[in-house]
Structure formats: structure tokens, C-alpha cells
Amino acid sequence: MTDLSAFPIASRWPAQHPDRLQLYSFPTPNGVKVSFALEEIGLPYEAHLVNIGKDESWTPEFLSLNPNGKIPAIVDPDGPGGKPLGLFESGAILLYLAEKTGKLLPADPARRYETVQWVFFQMGGIGPMFGQLGFFHKFAGKEIADKRPLERYANESKRLLGVLETRLNGRQWIMDDDYTIADISMLGWVRTLKVFYEASQLVGLDSLPNVNRWLDKGLERPASQRGLNIPPRP
């Protein structure tokens, strides 16, 4: 039987199936990246709800795995060389899962790096900018009299969506006919911008046919439908 006792996080979120990959997450745009990927790949895993509304990602047990205090994080009992591996940062986890299973990432080296660059595009641009837009548009930022921060993040989000719209022109997915971790990295964020932040009008999302087609098609996938609520919200 696999022993996860070397990982303090397992004491707070005990594994019922320690031989499976352990996912510590919450269904946010970053969290669903990993559940989308795991559901697409079909790799056996066990999901643990880390309730960020109760600051559980800042507990000593979670910080022992991710010192940055953010979901998602994983422990793979069958890591490289057959040894357990703990990993955080959603982009790194996506890349790890794709390379571990040989899925959701092109085998051709040039196309592989082309895919990875779009994951980095999401990590460095879409995620941070959309998140700040959500803060200033829907949450506490609404109380700030100075509207320049909202305008800044709205304009940058609009620009990033324009990049995505251009990339998807004539393409089914980011990498043509291949559904990859590049798509998975962005779907949850664009959905959140539209559905949760309710910022479609602010960023002109309705005027981007390629992005909306891609978003609808991606979210219609059975793995995406399942992954949107893994782990289930409390």
C-alpha cells in the first residue's frame, strides 16, 4: 500500500485511495484546469476540497505542499522513477500530466513548444489580468473611486482576448485540430470572465465569434462538464 505520510497535507486531507494521484483543489478557473485535464486523460485520481473561502490553503498542511498558498496542488504517488512527487502551479501540473501520460500535448517537438508557449500566455497574461478585472469589476474594487485600475485591466483583457480571437481564426482549437493543455489552461478563465465576472460587455466578448465558438465547444466536452465541479463546491 502506498505511504503518503511524508506529505503533511495527507494528514489533513487523508487519502482513501493512496495509490491514486491526489488532487487538492477548488473549482476556480485555476482549479478546473487540472480537473479538466485529469478527466480528459482518464488517469485515476482522488480529489480533495480545499475550501479557499475558509482560508484552508493557508493552513500549515497545505503550505507544506505549496508554500505560495494557492490551489491547485497534487501529490502523485507514482512520480518520476516510481517515487511520490508533490507539485504546485496549475501550468506546471498540466505540463506534468501531459508528459506523464503522452496526452494533450503534441509529440512533435516544435508543436510541443508551440503548445507550451500558449500555456505560458495564459499563465502570464490571461489569468492575472482577468483575475484583476474580476476584482475591480465585481468585487471590492467597485468601491474604489478611481476607475483607472478597472480601465487598465479591462483594456488589457480586451487586448488578450483579441490575441486569442486572431489565433483561433480558421482553427478548431489553439493547436489546430489537436485539443491540448493550451485550450484547457484558458477555457475556465474565459468562462469565468463571461459567466461569473459578468464582464462580457465590458471587454467586448460578444463581438469575438472565434472565441465564443471555441469556448462553447470546449465546455461541451464531457470531461469539461464533469471537471467544472471537481471537487464539488461545499
TrEMBL record:
Keyword tags: Transferase
Domain GST C-terminal, first and last residues per copy: 108-234
Transferase among keywords: yes
Ranges of residues in domain GST N-terminal: 18-105
GO molecular function: transferase activity
Membership in a protein family: Belongs to the GST superfamily.
Name under which the protein is recorded: Glutathione S-transferase
Gene source species: Kumtagia ephedrae
